[in-house]
Amino acid sequence: MLSRIAESLFWIGRYVERADGTARILDVHLERLNHLPPEDQHSVAQELLAVMGSRPEREDFGLPELLHALAYDRTHATSIAGSLGAARENARRARETVSSSLWECLNTTYYGLSQHRKDVVGTYRFCHWVLERTAMVGGLTDTTMSHDDSWLFLVLGRSLERADMTARMLSTREVHTAGMSWVNMLRCAGAYEAFLRTRRAAFDDRHAAEFLLMDRLFPRSIVYALRDADDALEKLDPSDQRVGFINDARRVVGQARTFLEFHRTDDLMIELPEHMERVQRAVAQASDAISRKYFNRADEQAWVGEVS
């Protein structure tokens, strides 16, 4: 497989999952933000944007600006519209590899972005529409593509981004510490019913945080997502090493996953921001390592030049 195709597939997975995760985060905070007084809206909107990895361009950054930055801004891939546009562009570049159904779904989603009101109510509906469309993309990815290297690169990007977005979602609770229920946070991740079936009893904040961090059976938990990424990396590079791992990405992902799985503490809620920062740093390092190993553009250009 050409490295440019592998790279496009990897970023399709990441961008679609980024749109899904951003829609979930925006959805769970939208109603509370709308009921805050204007002065509080400004500070919370800026903090929420910072959690998502961006900085406000204006000092009077408030709710309307937040909606544009996270939902409708097509010029930046940190927004929902920007992520879906970037996913569609990468699918166009890998058109001969992705299935026709997947391409048509991404293309239709892209052209549907402009058909929504950009006020609070419209954004709420927009977020739910995005969740439906990204779920359709995920289903078509798994059911209309052969589970070969092409699919593995797409799943690898999706899994890394999912771990990162769940970490960011958990980090947003610090923005709304007072009154932000863990029930809302579980609903944001689509985990509420699965969590109730797992616990079957009364629960507190710690149990909910543990579920989203370390549950081995729920697909949106960070440990599950990191395990999926590790499995994809192992299948892409199945060479068996008797001592350690040469693959830097597997080492980074494995260390982050095993730390969460085997770390036990009585102060999880106090340590939560530190854990989330560690996960986001591991995802960034793993993505860089994957780019160096599989998407080496210098090698690709040299090969093309040699042919010509």
Question: In terms of topology, how is this protein built?
Answer:
Elements: H1 3-34, H2 38-51, H3 63-72, H4 80-93, H5 100-111, H6 120-144, H7 149-171, H8 182-188, H9 192-199, H10 205-214, H11 222-236, H12 248-262, H13 268-294, H14 297-307
Helix pairs in contact: 1-3, 1-4, 1-6, 1-7, 1-8, 2-3, 4-5, 5-6, 7-11, 7-13, 11-12, 12-13
What key attributes describe this structure?
mainly alpha, 308 residues
Total number of beta strands: 0
How would you state the average pLDDT, rounded?
87
Percent of residues in β-strands = under 5%
Q: How many domain units?
A: 2
Shape: globular
Helix content range: over 70%
Order of helices and strands: HHHHHHHHHHHHHH
Q: Give the CA-CA distance, first to last residue.
A: 19 Å
